[in-house]
Amino acid sequence: MRCNGKYLYKFIYTLSLVSLSLSPSLSGHQRRSSGGGGGWSTSDVRGQTAWVGSGTMLGEVYYAIANKTSRLGFPGSVGPTVGIGGYLSGGGFDLMLRKHGLASDHVLDATMVDAKGRLLDRAAMKADLFWAIRGGGSGNFGIVLSCKLRLVPIPATVTVFTVHRSRNQSTTNLLIKWQRVAPSLPSDAFLHVVVPLYLDTRAGLIAIMADTFPELNVTASDCTEMMWIQSVLDFAFYSTGKPSEMLLDRGNGIGDPSGSWMRLARSS
Ligand SMILES: Cc1cc2nc3c(=O)[nH]c(=O)nc-3n(C[C@H](O)[C@H](O)[C@H](O)COP(=O)(O)OP(=O)(O)OC[C@H]3O[C@@H](n4cnc5c(N)ncnc54)[C@H](O)[C@@H]3O)c2cc1C
């Protein structure tokens, strides 16, 4: 395909609106239990993928996934308005970084237009190019149109915990210790100086903290158990009580969850 800049821009914008689909890939057990008919399964997390257009905001990705299942997620940024195109091309890190690595590690396939106007998918582009568009810097290697993402398993409950310590409560010592403790925690735990996340229930978190970081004195009242999608809202808007449609807000009002980009979703 050959195209000049003007038409390419329109093409990309269109793709961003029709983009996200979730493709179930069932285990042998579930194929049997569903009579081999396929269909979406929230209980099997293996092999789940999503095709996402490059203009899609991360909030829209989270929203679409959460509408299908509460047991899958994507390690996208804390900011729901961040575009997946720039995010993936820079690598992309979030609160699940310790468990799942960079977001770009979860790109399985991509379509792009290179400088010669060729439309390429993973098979057509060389391995170096596929490597480069996943973290090698934004806009350097061509225009990425869409990406096939591997979704990650999410436990039914995650725990968000916030421990407030003022300056006269040995905060400097706590910060020094945090730098030592944080890298050696189990990978389910992300201990951030601003907002931490634990990919399981509060009891496990309290036990880990008591063992590794007793000075922080994390108690049950510091912790809130919730579904992963609620934690996304909590980090973005400091509240789990906000409607999840706020994740669709592109800055011009709350998005329409029945909008064309979801209606036109296709299976990969
Ligand atoms: C509020 C906020 C929160 C953030 N939080 C995080 C975070 O938690 N983790 C993290 O890793 N980063 C975070 N970032 C950084 C963010 O990932 C980068 O700023 C990213 O480049 C934004 O991409 P975009 O598509 O939204 O922006 P744009 O400005 O549209 O694009 C950024 C660059 O990427 C290029 N680009 C965009 N789409 C494509 C495409 N399809 N093909 C080729 N090139 C493309 C553009 O040409 C441009 O050079 C945050 C940024 C903001 C503003």
Secondary structure tally, helices: 10
> What would the CATH topology of the largest domain be?
Uridine Diphospho-n-acetylenolpyruvylglucosamine Reductase, domain 3
Task: Write out the strand line-up for the largest beta sheet, numbering strands in chain order.
Answer: 1-2-6-4-5
CATH class of the largest domain: Alpha Beta
Radius of gyration: 20 Å
- H and E order: HEHEHEHHEEHEEEHEEHEHH
GO molecular function: FAD binding; oxidoreductase activity
Keywords: Signal
Domain FAD-binding PCMH-type: 1-154
InterPro entries: FAD-bd_PCMH, FAD-bd_PCMH-like_sf, FAD-bd_PCMH_sub2, Oxid_FAD_bind_N
Structural summary, described in words:
This is Os09g0328900 protein. Residues 1-154 form the FAD-binding PCMH-type domain. GO terms for molecular function: FAD binding; oxidoreductase activity. InterPro entries: FAD-bd_PCMH, FAD-bd_PCMH-like_sf, FAD-bd_PCMH_sub2, Oxid_FAD_bind_N. Residues 1-28 form the signal peptide. This protein has 268 residues and is of the alpha+beta class. It folds into 2 domains: 5-154 and 246-250, Uridine Diphospho-n-acetylenolpyruvylglucosamine Reductase, domain 3, CATH 3.30.465; 158-226, Vanillyl-alcohol Oxidase, Chain A, domain 3 (3-Layer(aba) Sandwich). It has 10 helices and 11 strands. The strands form 3 sheets. The protein has a 5-stranded antiparallel beta sheet. The chain has a 4-stranded antiparallel beta sheet with strand order 9-10-8-11. A hairpin with a 6-residue loop joins β9 and β10 (197-198). The longest helix has 13 residues, at 5-17. It starts with a helix and ends in a 5-residue tail after the last helix. The model is unreliable at 1-45 and 258-268 (pLDDT under 50). Bound molecules: flavin-adenine dinucleotide.
